[in-house]
Amino acid sequence: GEYIKNWRPRYFLLKTDGSFIGYKEKPQDVDLPYPLNNFSVAKCQLMKTERPKPNTFIIRCLQWTTVIERTFHVDTPEEREEWTEAIQAVADRLQRQEEERMNCSPTSQIDNIGEEEMDASTTHHKRKTMNDFDYLKLLGKGTFGKVILVREKASGKYYAMKILKKEVIIAKDEVAHTLTESRVLKNTRHPFLTSLKYSFQTKDRLCFVMEYVNGGEV
């Protein structure tokens, strides 16, 4: 786990809703003990490694305001392949379900943003999603959301991703202000100001991907 430096034996169950639950003792079909670990593999990233032990894999997930990495070791390469394939399949299915809900759900005040408003890509490539980035570390957080240092998978470039919660923006009547900020950042082309590279939305969040200036304000 993210806080434990020694290896501890655990028995995990992966559920179709994305829950990945760990137990100290091997769980039976009935009378499951209280879990020691419980997190979601939704939107996770998987990495295989042979260090510090062979047949190791890492699950990196974004939980609220923190990027968490959990490291697992299994006995054989085949067992590792089975686990990573199963986890990826569940994560992919959850992503498809979320996209379907976004397409079918009633539009709210902030969901009504036009396609051009929330697609600030400076190129004509396909629309970005959260899966197009690696999430490296938390840069800051506040009332409306957080800012995370990310790396674009396709280019390897580093950006600052501002993730805002739609419900908080609506509750605090900040919709107009948020859209204005998006337009200003989108049109900014100045050597001393950060500009907006991409923007997109999920069911419950707005995501703004900006130039990253190490040591600067975000």
From TrEMBL:
Keywords: ATP-binding, Kinase, Nucleotide-binding, Serine/threonine-protein kinase, Transferase. The keyword Cell wall biogenesis/degradation does not apply. InterPro entries: Kinase-like_dom_sf (IPR011009), PH-like_dom_sf (IPR011993), PH_domain (IPR001849), PH_PKB (IPR039026), Prot_kinase_dom (IPR000719), Protein_kinase_ATP_BS (IPR017441). GO terms for molecular function: ATP binding; protein serine/threonine kinase activity. Residues 1-92 form the PH domain. Pfam families: PH, Pkinase. ATP binds at K172. Residues 133-218 form the Protein kinase domain. It comes from the Eukaryota. The keyword Kinase applies. CDD domains: PH_PKB. PANTHER family: RIBOSOMAL PROTEIN S6 KINASE. Belongs to the protein kinase superfamily. AGC Ser/Thr protein kinase family. RAC subfamily. This is AKT3 kinase. It comes from Gulo gulo (Wolverine).
